[in-house]
Amino acid sequence: MFDFITDKFIKLQRKILGYGKLSDKEINDALREIRMALLEADVNYKVVGEFIKEFQDKLATQKLKDSLDPKDFINVALFQELVNLLGKTPQKIKFTSQPTIIALVGLQGSGKTTTAAKIAQKFKNKNPLLVACDTKRPAASEQLKILATKISVGFFDVLSNAVLTCQEALNYASRAGHQLIIIDTAGRIHIDNELMEELVQIKHEINPHYVILVVDGMIGQDAINQASEFHKRLGLSGIIMTKLDGDAKGGAVISIRKATGVPVYYIGVGEGVDDLEEFIPERMAMRILGRGDILTIQEKVMQAVSPQKQQEIAEKFLKGKFDLNDFLEQLQAIRKMGNINKLIELVPFAKGLKGVSSIDEEEFKRTEAIILSMTKEERKNPEIIDGSRRRRIAYGSGTTVEEVNRLLKEYQSLKRLMSDLKQNNLKILKRLR
Length: 433
Ligand SMILES: Nc1nc2c(ncn2[C@@H]2O[C@H](COP(=O)(O)OP(=O)(O)O)[C@@H](O)[C@H]2O)c(=O)[nH]1
Ligand SMILES: [Mg+2]
Description:
Elements: H1 3-18, H2 24-40, H3 45-59, H4 62-67, H5 70-86, E1 100-105, H6 112-122, E2 128-133, H7 138-150, E3 154-156, H8 162-176, E4 180-185, H9 193-206, E5 210-216, H10 222-234, E6 238-242, H11 251-260, E7 264-268, E8 276-278, H12 281-288, H13 294-303, H14 307-319, H15 324-337, H16 340-345, H17 361-372, H18 376-380, H19 387-397, H20 401-432
Parallel strand pairs: 1-4, 1-5, 2-3, 2-4, 5-6, 6-7
Antiparallel strand pairs: 7-8
């Protein structure tokens, strides 16, 4: 969903890495590029204007300037501002001892019914009750019923009138011990008065804990107009943006909170009942900036090694603290995954780093031979491998000193890459707090 904007930001970050010092010209160039990237990704133009202004102010804060080296400076400030833009604290549905009521509102086709089922699936431990509330379209209620059966949660069918349906559903829910009630309200093709009045009435009579707008992420800027309209009439608690798995450029989800003042709770990333992601601003900002997801990388590597080794390698991997034994093991794991380029793809920011290249079969065998020719001590502390040890290892493995050198270099880069990635992410997170 952020591919487009991420590509631009990665290019910008690489360029900034090349700067020794940041002059006003470089800062202005960077600002221009950021503005363009956001506009092209369909971020609301007013939001872009405000974002650039706030970003400029941030860049002018001497404290930040003094505390960072120039090349980190723009990146950290950009990350911080993106997190601010996206809403900083993740929104959570809070439960109390009373049944929690969530009313989903939105236009027809936005994904309300699907999202109702996704939420029920997510909070299954609350014994959710799905309430059909569209009095005009019997098919709407049928669809919800099918989903409720599929995920084995409670279902309450629509009655002659929407408010009555909700009231009866609440009575039923407290008798049947449902801790969560999700109301799937009626939709329309366009916003109209009749619909709004019905929703206002439900809100007034039922007083749901959450009134959440479900809005289609594919419609771009229109999502913002829709959200503003619903918010004006209903006073929304939050937004769930759906269909962000498709070709949506991501601009709408980046700008909707700033443009409407309403926070995003979740995003829909597929048609399945599990395709609901929490909207965590820090994670989203990392993704937008192409910093990759170190947890995803770790998961990929883990899939390729035996379960008992997983914990051990995971720790070393994240600490950037593995020796050549681990390196060998990881090469084997990575080889099972395809090649190291695949791994690097998950870290868009690291793409193009020197010293980390693909490893083919032949090369792999030689690498293995080299490591096997080392003593235990050497594998544990590759730093001790000096010139004469390199010659011995080359001789023992039937390779050349150049090859031994290359391997040690690759090991060092991989090690550095992992620890850089971790530190970079940590550093940024720390600055935020
Ligand atoms: N790809 C994708 N499709 C979705 C998502 N959410 C809903 N849909 C699809 O959008 C269509 C309309 O969804 P529905 O829940 O019936 O919308 P409603 O009219 O608002 O209740 C259905 O075909 C859903 O499968 C999503 O996050 N990703
Ligand atoms: Mg529906």
